[in-house]
Amino acid sequence: MIKRGMIPINQNTVMDDIEKWLDLEDEYDDYEDSDGVTSEEFDKFLAGRAEAAERLPSVRASSQDNNTSES
Fold first, then answer.
1. Fewest CB atoms within 10 A around its CB: which of 29, 35, 47, 61?
2. Global confidence as pTM
């Protein structure tokens, strides 16, 4: 098989992998049926991310710190 460019595999392993994949597909079906989040929930999420971003050091400050420590 290898001489013909084929890769020998264990059939049982392939079937196990397919069964796992199909089981995961069923789990994701539950998410597709949900309505997701409301605009209000998403706005709260965005506000939280903006607050977190404000607490981060600036890129300019970070690059200056790195240059100092490399010297």
1. 35
2. 0.36
